[in-house]
Amino acid sequence: MSSRERILGRVRRALADVPADVPSDDSPIERGYLRAHGDSGVEETTDLLAENLADYRAIVHRCTLADLPATIAGMLAARGAKSVLVPPGLDREWLSAADAEQVADRAESTPHELDQVDSVVTACAVAVAETGTIVLDGSPDQGRRRITLVPDHHICVVRVPEQVVSSVPQALEHLDPARPLTWISGPSATSDIELDRVEGVHGPRTLEVVLVG
């Protein structure tokens, strides 16, 4: 008797006393859970997002769309960034005030080449207030996943209110599961070794989020 036959035999014996009228496992599951906790307005939801982003040690900025180029330029200058990686679909007006060299994302770029770039600026797909999470989906204004994992400094722009939701269930309604989704809650970090927090292990050491509204 093969391993497969033994396993299936155990399953059949376990199900032998199950009545025939019991619904099978492929029956629709009742999903009556809350989509969000409370009914917060835009300002309150955005404040919660900013608070939770900060709890994850992300650096949060707020500005208007008109002030965005100056805000990004100031962030790059404060970091001393001489080069910035730019996704192909990013609004170039966002970087119009920046002095750093703008490096285009190329498919043939190696991880070593990407590691030489000081910063990367992207948009996002959606931001979740309750968890302080930014989601990227690989759209042209966000670029490939690797460009947000290799450079040590990531600036992510979130449009308020259209890209801010309260909860994960609401975020999933905005996302295409077939796209390469990257869920970011603060800078990359791990505490695997003796519970000492080390940042920049699996991605950027510094995450700065600009809430634009």
TrEMBL record:
SUPFAM superfamilies: NagB/RpiA/CoA transferase-like (SSF100950)
PANTHER family from the UniProt entry: LACTATE UTILIZATION PROTEIN C
Origin organism lineage: Bacteria, Bacillati, Actinomycetota, Actinomycetes, Kitasatosporales
Annotated ranges, domain LUD: 49-212
Domain of life of the organism encoding this protein: Bacteria
Coiled coil: none
Pfam family, one: LUD_dom
Protein known as: LUD domain-containing protein
